């Protein structure tokens, strides 16, 4: 089995994890393929992995890769998804820091997780993505997001206005610092920080959440994910920010942004002994008395 591995950086804390990962996968008879920059860091800091193959684009995932591992946090997981795209390659996230919603396998448990994967004791959980089209095509083919699309003000303290349409029907003009359109996966990311609802994976919806709205009676809206969402930003400046899972670019005033559900989904590995409810309960410290 050919296993792809992506991580953002290698340091003293994570080197032992990569060494253990390599030892376990070698024992299983799995062949590793590392992201190009990750291999460079590992070779430089460990002296091994010199003969390991590399990948550098999403096109490589159509060349026989069977499984992908993200080693890091949720941001690392999202970057791995950007490589996977429509290849159908399943992904599992190993967390090397605090508990994540996406990378939810702690480094102390990852060897057990790999064993469950080897025994095929897991299911696939389908996660939807957003596809974003702008008038100038500013994202090119990198125009998908797993968590959210965000429109934000830039270089100003003034509010912006985001005109919002559902299937070309006018919804609202949001006076705010910005607007988030999130997937169920992204409901626990920026959307959650801005007061949006938590939505369990698998729900076929999108969430529209204003950021610091001027009108206090404006609330997040949950809509079916088959409804195209069109946004247009206005304000005192000429340029603003659009962000796809943290990948921010400049967008002009009145430039239309069309958001739709992507044509494909991501296969996230769900192990037998893990589930979304456990993760969110632990992450949010629900049911714990912290008064003492």
UniProtKB/TrEMBL annotation:
Subcellular location: Cytoplasm
Positions annotated to bind NAD(+): 74-75, 79, 147-148, 177, 188-193, 212, 247
GO biological process: NAD+ metabolic process; NADP+ biosynthetic process
Keyword Chaperone: no
Pfam families (alphabetical): NAD_kinase, NAD_kinase_C
Catalysed transformations (reactions): NAD(+) + ATP = ADP + NADP(+) + H(+)
UniProt KW keywords: ATP-binding, Cytoplasm, Kinase, NAD, NADP, Nucleotide-binding, Transferase
Secretion signal span: none
Cofactor(s) the protein needs: a divalent metal cation
Superkingdom field: Bacteria
The keyword NADP appears for this protein: yes
Enzyme class, broadest EC rank: transferase
Cross-referenced InterPro entries: ATP-NAD_kinase_N, ATP-NAD_kinase_PpnK-typ_C, NAD/diacylglycerol_kinase_sf, NADK
A cellular-component GO term for this protein: cytoplasm
SUPFAM superfamilies: NAD kinase/diacylglycerol kinase-like (SSF111331)
Active site annotation, chain numbering: 74 (proton acceptor)
EC number(s) given by UniProt: 2.7.1.23
GO molecular function terms noted in the UniProt entry: ATP binding; metal ion binding; NAD binding; NAD+ kinase activity
Function: Involved in the regulation of the intracellular balance of NAD and NADP, and is a key enzyme in the biosynthesis of NADP. Catalyzes specifically the phosphorylation on 2'-hydroxyl of the adenosine moiety of NAD to yield NADP.
Protein family (similarity comment): Belongs to the NAD kinase family.
Protein name: NAD kinase
């Amino acid at each position: 089995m050919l296993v792809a591995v992506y991580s953002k950086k290698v340091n003293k804390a994570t080197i032992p994890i990569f060494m253990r990962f390599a030892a376990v996968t070698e024992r299983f008879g799995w062949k590793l393929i590392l992201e190009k920059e990750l291999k460079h860091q590992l070779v430089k800091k460990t002296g091994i992995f010199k003969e390991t193959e590399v990948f550098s684009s999403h096109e490589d995932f159509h060349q026989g890769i069977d499984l992908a591992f993200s080693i890091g946090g949720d941001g690392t997981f999202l970057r791995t998804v950007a490589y996977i795209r429509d290849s159908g390659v399943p992904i599992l996230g190993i967390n090397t820091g605090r508990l994540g919603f996406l990378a939810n396998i702690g480094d102390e448990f990852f060897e057990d997780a790999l064993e469950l994967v080897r025994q095929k004791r897991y299911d696939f959980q389908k996660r939807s993505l957003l596809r974003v089209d702008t008038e100038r095509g500013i994202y090119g083919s990198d125009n998908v997001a797993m968590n959210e699309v965000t429109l934000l003000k830039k270089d100003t303290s003034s509010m912006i206005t985001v005109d919002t349409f559902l299937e070309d029907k006018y919804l609202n003009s949001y006076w705010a610092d910005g607007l988030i359109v999130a997937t169920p996966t992204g409901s626990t990311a920026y959307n959650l920080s801005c007061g949006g609802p938590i939505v369990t994976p698998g729900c076929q919806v999108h969430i529209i959440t204003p950021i610091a709205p001027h009108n206090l009676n404006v609330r997040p809206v949950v809509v079916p994910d088959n409804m195209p969402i069109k946004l247009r930003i206005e304000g005192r400046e000429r340029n603003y920010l659009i962000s796809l899972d943290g990948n921010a670019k400049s967008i002009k005033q009145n430039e239309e942004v069309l958001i739709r559900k992507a044509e494909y989904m991501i296969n996230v590995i769900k192990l037998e002994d893990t589930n979304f409810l456990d993760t969110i309960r632990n992450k949010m410290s629900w049911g714990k008395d912290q008064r003492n």
